[in-house]
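Support reply, case 0932

Customer input (verbatim):
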Amino acid sequence: MSNVERYLILVEGGPPSNYSAWSPDVPGCVATGPTIEACVEEMHAALVGHFDVMREHGEAIPEPSGPGIYVERAAA
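Our regenerated output:
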């Protein structure tokens, strides 16, 4: 398995359906899973596979944009 740098992923959804994940740095690379943990594992595997295919086609691997930050919403 190839090494994957730290890429920001966003996880959405959840019960009653699966969770889904995507990365703003890697358009078109997505994954799903029944739990957050499974979804994150699937997304890691998806990123590894996505980058392997990009390398095979001579495409540049996108640089990670950095960590995400949560911002608290002020109570109304």
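We compared this against your earlier run and they match. Two observations from our side: Residues 8 and 14 are 19 Å apart (CA to CA). The chain has a mean pLDDT of 89. Please reopen the case if you see a mismatch on your end.
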